[in-house]
Amino acid sequence: MKKLSAVFLIVLSLAFAGCLNNVDNIQDSNSSDVSVSDTGNSAADELTLIEHVENEYAEQFSIDRYEGGFSKITTMNGEEFLIVPEGKTPPEKLDESITVIEQPAENFYLAATAAMGHFAEIGAGNSIKFSSINADDWYIDYAREAMKSGEMVYAGKYREPDYELLLTGKCKLAIESTMIEHSPAVKEKLLELGIPVFIDYASYENHPLGRAEWIKVYGEITGKSAEAERIFDEQAAKLKLIENSEKTEKTVAFFYINSAGQAVVRKSGDYITKMIELAGGKYVFEDLSGGGLSTVVIEPEAFYNAAKDADIVIYNSTIGGEVDSLESIVAKCSLLSDFKAFKDGNVWCTKENLYQESIKFGEMINDFHSVLTGKTEEEPPVFLFRPKD
Q1: CB under 8 Å to 191, separation ≥6 — which residues?
Q2: Quick check: 14 and 293 in contact, CB under 8 A?
């Protein structure tokens, strides 16, 4: 498997982590140069390998299946997780470096919020008992309703989990985003308490559909692999239809205005800009870098020169705050009134669920394509809306 770089300089890089109440959990890192290594049949001598699952886009995990319903997930950092079917026991001579996850999948703590969509889509939302964000910060219907009913409860942010609650609630697995790597003491404490930790590296995938393909990981963990593969194939099929259509090459500016009146744009080559390109568009902010973060702040003049003639503006209201009209957007930055897209009425806004529905990247790309081709009446966007004039 393969091993996983204008007038003013970029002055500051912003991560989504400072923009929402639940941003500590948004997985929005850039792709990494590391990938899963093939560890072979290391699960145990007693297990017989029968299948290595071939990924279509994902490079940051691998799945191996064994006789008896056992399977092993290996993530990009080399950690291995043995999934043990209900009613069976792990092999006696299992290597101590391999973490055991026993089915049924239940009482999970989810701090990698982007994975919630995966669980909900495959009908395994009830595996999640503990949430790292409150009900009002969920934009996935299942999660919000589960918290309101008490089926899922708040158990603290990833960096400050309620250890006592997790213990008394018999938490079987903590699913963390890569943010946990900035709080190693939390991971150590969870392990010390006997709670296995699984890190979701979907944000390191180079291709948007690679992120979506992580649904296969959660399908494997919950015993719903067939359903996970079916749902992923549906998203991949949407992309293939678009790839075979004519590219418009229309230019797109994707940004929001922060509280200081500065334009915050996506770094070149991140998954949002890749979705725009896969949809047949051209992202106007080229050659932007910003360390390991996904957004950069640019000076007004540089922003104006790059975006004023863009054919389409997509305003990132998910991060920049709710807006419902062109007037409310222009109020954040008066320069926008001179933009071609604002004059032509080609302005769209993101809906709240854009960053939590991580399985639906095929649908998101389809939304961008619908906007680029002017077919929004025939194919109404799911993740975008047009603000009032």
Answers
A1: 197
A2: yes
Residue 13 identity = S
Measuring CA to CA, how many Å separate 237 from each of 92, 108, 220, 231? 42, 31, 21, 10
Do 12-19+246-385 and 23-239 fold alike per CATH?
Answer: yes
- Are residues 281 and 249 in contact, defined by beta-carbon separation less than 8 angstroms? yes
Encode pLDDT of 214-237 as tens digits: 999 999 999 999 999 999 999 999
Residue (of 359, 78, 53, 21) closest to 199 by Cα position: 78
Q: Phi and psi (nearest 5°) for 95?
A: -60, 135
- Return phi, psi of residue 126, to 5°: -70, -5
Q: Which CATH superfamily is domain 23-239 in?
A: Nitrogenase molybdenum iron protein domain (3.40.50.1980)
User: Helices (H), strands (E): how many in the chain?
Assistant: 13, 18
> Can you give the pTM of this predicted structure?
0.85
